[in-house]
Specification:
Elements: H1 2-30, H2 38-52, H3 54-64, H4 79-86, H5 90-98, H6 118-129
């Protein structure tokens, strides 16, 4: 009797948690009256940028994302910092990607991105510089 009751209570507790989290998530997503945080606004803007330049984003995912976040530092700095540093200078960023030099104290030295073709370097640089 105890085991049967215990399993029923566990099932209902799990069911309640799943339903309540689903409802909360749906309310947050579908309720336009809820104010958006600055982080959510940045994520939306980044998503729009990704859609405009899918090739640059796919190169970011395969070559850059292991070390860099878009807005958060990882092994390397956040890409938004690079976008701010180069201010639309795509040729300067591409040249730096080919032969990176240390731009900040600490952290790991970025290796040259010689595995990327010039077309790929230009695509990922354009995508990075579009991040705000």
């Amino acid at each position: 009797m105890f085991i049967k009751t215990y399993h029923s209570l566990t099932f209902f507790a799990l069911f309640y948690l799943i339903v309540s989290f689903s409802v909360q998530a749906q309310v947050c997503i579908t309720n336009p009256a809820l104010p958006k945080t600055a982080a959510q606004k940045k994520q939306e803007k980044a998503a729009i940028t990704r859609l405009k330049n899918v090739e640059g984003y796919s190169i970011f995912v395969s070559s850059c994302q292991p070390c860099h976040g878009i807005y958060d530092a990882n092994i390397g700095p956040a890409l938004v910092q690079g976008a701010q540093m180069y201010h639309g200078d795509i040729k300067g960023l591409v040249a730096w990607l080919k032969n990176p030099t240390r731009k900040r104290r600490g952290g790991a030295q970025m290796p040259p991105q010689s595995h990327l073709s010039p077309k790929e370097l230009n695509a990922v640089a354009a995508w990075v510089l579009a991040i705000r």
